[in-house]
Amino acid sequence: MEELLRKIPQMDKLLQHLVLEGLRTKIGHEPVKTMAQIYLEGLRGRVRAGAPMETLDQIAEGIEQLIAKREQPYLRRVLNATGIALHTNLGRAPLPSAALQAVLDTACGYCDLEYDLEKGQRGSRSRMVELLSQICGCESAMAVNNNAAALLLAASTLAKGKNVVISRGELVEIGDSFRVPEILEQSGAALREVGATNKTHLRDYQKALEQGNVGMVLKVHTSNFQVVGFTKTVSAQELAPLCHQWEIPLVVDLGSGLILGKENSPISQEPTLPEMLEAEADVVCFSGDKLLGGPQAGILAGRRELISNMSKNPLARALRLDKMTLAALEATLRLYESPQRALTEIPVLASLNASPEKLRRQAEELLELLKRENLTGELVPHQRPVGGGSAPGKWLDGWAVALHLEEGLTPEKAAACLRQGEPPVVARIHQGKLLLDVAALLPGETILLAKACGKALKGDKEG
Prior knowledge:
By secondary structure, this protein is an alpha/beta fold. It has helices at 2-5, 11-15, 18-27, 29-48, 56-70, 97-107, 129-136, 147-159, 180-186, 202-210, 236-245, 273-278, 304-312, 314-318, 323-335, 339-345, 347-353, 356-372, 411-419, 445-458; strands spanning 79-80, 115-116, 121-122, 140-144, 163-167, 173-175, 178-179, 190-194, 214-220, 250-255, 283-287, 298-302, 376-387, 390-404, 425-426, 428-430, 433-437.
């Protein structure tokens, strides 16, 4: 064994290999040497485990591959073939073209982020309040870095040292083990739970308000689960008069942030911002990167006095948006000035509104492109969730291609090959079949998907 290990080339000789010499010129001597040391340590372990010794060329090639893998960015573009438009693990909403251009224009040079061009003096980054108010149809609005931050800011401003009244059935976990009670605890507010898990009545809120020391009443839309059966909830429409009677702000955490009216909504059962404002909620908070279809942000819309107080909270500075997110959010919101434009130019809304007939045609196109890559499959009707904790229980009709796999290649192994390809493809396994759902593909990605599948599953390294 030791004699075999002595055949591993010395570092000086190894670094003189033509492949590694080129890499040293490109990225520097020390990074290549470090990767070579890591690779050789792994090679020693493999040889001790019984693997054959590699040649000098094989070692150099292995180091080159290791360096290439290490140099890949941590965030990589993937092709979403799951059909889930708001896939949280895949970054939720892809940005509209207008938002991408706005980010580029803002990021590639200087901008008037906090500068008043007319007066030639310091300005405010909160100028977008006017646009938010106009689009959202509210007195005032502001944006922070996500919806959890929006809820934290609201509770810290309105209920620090006081109680937040909330139904037990709305103490939700919003993902990655973050829970509404924990966010409220960080705000300095205390939780006052009312009702039961499955049933809460208006009289439960009334009793809590009578006990005093209440800073706000919070209603959380249960956007990522459903409670069915023997249930009762109190709507914002019912809560608002009670809160106003006691002069206590009603804050509604809308979650996904659908701001289109029902007539333009792809998900009719999802509550909308216009509905909550019409119900006279004092403040409504929601996400920017879910059904709104923009960048990650938490938007607070509602009464001018309350929003103004939140903007003056020291937390507002810690939670504020950067220039690129502000640019993307503004460009996305401007698309809502025309609902039809929003429905067609915001990728998430276009995906959710795509008809089954359109998706079938796209799946047929994909199937033909796959044939050119020597892959076969069949069209299958397929239902997909909205994703992103939006519209639980709502399944949208669509179409997918079920790939025919070679003997011995399981759907799980094939899916792993697709994920390791370039570009990576995230597919879906359903009822023992590997599905390529077209619903969440962006324009131009159908061709990319077919080629990526061909390279990953057929070993076409030339393409």
